[in-house]
Amino acid sequence: MAKDVTAPAYDESSIQRLNPREHIRLRPGMYVGGTDIRAMHHLVYEIVDNAVDEALAGRCDQILVTLHDDQRVSVSDNGVGIPVGVHRETGKSALEMVLTEVGTGAKFSNSAYKVSGGLHGVGAAAVNALSEEMVATVYRDGYIWQQTYKAGEPITKVEKLRPLADGEGTGTVISFKPDFTVLERNDFSYSTLVQRFREMSFVTRRVTITVRDEREKPLPRESTFYFEGGLRAFVRFLNRSRTTLHPVIHVERDVQMTPEGKAPYSVGIEVAFQYNDSSNVTELAFANTINTPDGGTHLTGLRSAVTGVINRFARKAGYLKEKDSNFSGTDTMEGLTTIVSVKHPQPAFESQTKVKLINPEVQGAVSQVVTEAFNEFLELNPREARKIIEKCSISMRAREAARKARDLVRSGPSLLESSTLPGKLADCSSHGENAEIYIVEGDSAGGSAKQGRDRHFQAILPLRGKILNTERARLDKMLDNNEIKSLISALGTGVSEEFDVTNIRYGRVIIMTDADVDGSHIRTLLLTFFFRHMQPLITNGHLYIAQPPIFRLQHGKDVRYIYPQAGMGERELLAQSLKPFADPEKVKVSRYKGLGEMNPDQLWETTMDPATRTLLQVTVENAVEADEVFNTLMGAEVPPRRKFIVTHARNVRNLDV
């Protein structure tokens, strides 16, 4: 290989040595998972996790999270308070060490915390390093103590503010403001934090967690959570809008571990699960109260136990004959809402963000506990056992029908080349990360989009009418729908179990519908399909919603397009948009009822030109909340949907119909 003489020099002067604070600020993704809104929320989680550790140790039962006006967050607890005394080895305050030095903490042994979520001595120091300012206030040893930091460095010493008043308890208050020179500027989401801490309150029983939003005027909004029912109550909460097949199966047990050459220890295991009549799976897994969204050995142990127990019971009871195949994991998990929580003295996670538990011994322990409890339930409840087996049988038959339907699609003529393809895909000349496909409502809008697009990187797929509601439809029925088959084939990713995001033909999948009720319904149907059957499309950042204008204002040669704004009705929006004109009465107002009413050049200029358009990226900040919303709005149960509409109707202003 020829030497590139233009390459930069690489010698000893190229080697840099960063201190931990500098490394956190340079590579925040390694510590908090990125720089976006999720990373901002992760800062809050890290501090709250420390307060929950105090609760697990039996020293705290009150946690308050407050969102302040200036994008500052404070987390207070009534634990014993972070130690403030001088550490004999370093000569520094223990408080300063905990909040500034990576690898410092009281959780490396089990002397102060039997189990905890904070393990690495990194979380609080990382939050401090990524904060414009942090203030730590500690109530302990008879006084109130305080220290202030900027970008992870102390700017004051630990100060003794005043003695504790009579009846004033101990605890810690950590207040911080994210550093937006490192993180992307975003606003904390009250709903996201509420959802997270509701989950945490279920898992951490008998601890009160309050989220207060002081940004809301004139009075702050507040949510308080306290649960004694644990995971049993959590499963009931998740299934409250569904028809369930049996009471919640719940088991809680300590399993003794005796590793070779090491001291024995105990792992606390709590599991709750319940089948419902839907085809959706809701799985949540926690390790030391920390949500592990990517699962891990605890979730694997639960899945294998459920499948194994059902197959053995079905054969023993005669539901499966000798010639019948076993139920697959997909069959036994369909319609299951399940939560597993483990408390381990030495948990091992895949990364600092703790998204996946990797302790190998946990899998066998969870499997053992679930197997014993589920076996007992099926033996003592034959009627409910029959319902569960019948549901698995239906799932198996649907899976086999779906497989045949997929084979039929594969063996038939290529849908992408078929001249009779519903929707008539107009493909682009290039594919990959920079290519995009617009899923458009109707042939009329599709015609304008095809004429207005840039053919090099923009494909158009018009859909006729409203696609099938896939919230409760089985895969075999879904694959009989021509519009859905067209969509699956155009994207090239497969669907459900066979979905592979690496095969996607377009970097951006853009939903473009009319700004009316029908358009909103079609958009919701598409979002339901993507969430239920192509969720990685969302989590990998490929799905977007186009924002076409709803008004065109013209005064002479002055033409302006007006786009929808959240929380503002059309009349209010129009009135506000007319104000800048010197003579609003002479302004010609055009209301776009549909995309097909726009000329191709107008559609390009307002909605499709990357230089001027606005796209909303679809994200799933919390899968549990999203699952609940889709089930409520698109499921078969009417009362929950009616309740949702009535509850939220007060937020709709100036509704034009």
Q: Could you explain the architecture of this structure?
A:
With 657 residues, the chain is of the alpha+beta class. The protein folds into four domains: 20-225, Histidine kinase-like ATPase, C-terminal domain (Heat Shock Protein 90), CATH 3.30.565.10; 230-406, 2-Layer Sandwich (Ribosomal Protein S5, domain 2), CATH 3.30.230.10; 415-548 and 592-620, Rossmann fold; 625-657, no CATH class. It is 35% helix and 21% strand. It contains 20 helices and 22 strands. The strands form four sheets. Strands 1, 2, 3, 4, 5, 6, 7, 8 and 9 form a nine-stranded mixed sheet that branches. Strands 10-11-14-12-13 form a five-stranded mixed sheet, with helices on both faces. The chain has a five-stranded mixed sheet with strand order 16-15-17-18-22. The model is unreliable at 411-423 and 650-657 (pLDDT under 50).
